[in-house]
């Protein structure tokens, strides 16, 4: 793994909320630290209510992590475009991110309980 990227098990329990809905809660989150960016919490898909998430056509590429697929959050009250992302086929050095999803802080609230 490049020296500027670190992945570790995030201690404690995390919840993600958006549009008045709880999208998931987990005690199996991963925390990714990358350079000077704030750490990002990744949730296992199986701990998320995937019915709230729809894949969009948006993709981006990171030279270290691979291609990111984006998701919109759909709740009763709102649709939040490209609010989450996932590396569905991550590069080998960050393979632990497979089957995990992260959320943009300005679009969903991720909190440690």
TrEMBL record:
DUF427 domain segment(s): 16-105
Pfam families: NTP_transf_9
InterPro entries found in the cross-reference section: DUF427, DUF427_sf
Protein name according to UniProt: DUF427 domain-containing protein
Organism: Celeribacter baekdonensis B30
């Amino acid at each position: 793994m490049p020296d500027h990227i670190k992945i570790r098990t995030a201690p404690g329990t995390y919840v993600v909320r958006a549009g008045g809905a709880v999208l998931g809660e987990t005690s199996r989150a991963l925390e990714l630290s990358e350079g000077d960016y704030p750490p990002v919490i990744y949730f296992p898909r199986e701990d998320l209510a995937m019915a709230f998430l729809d894949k969009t056509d948006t993709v981006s590429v990171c030279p270290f992590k691979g291609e990111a697929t984006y998701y919109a959050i759909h709740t009763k009250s709102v649709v939040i475009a490209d609010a989450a992302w996932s590396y569905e086929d991550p590069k080998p050095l960050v393979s632990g991110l497979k089957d995990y999803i992260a959320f943009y802080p300005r679009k969903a609230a991720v909190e440690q309980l």
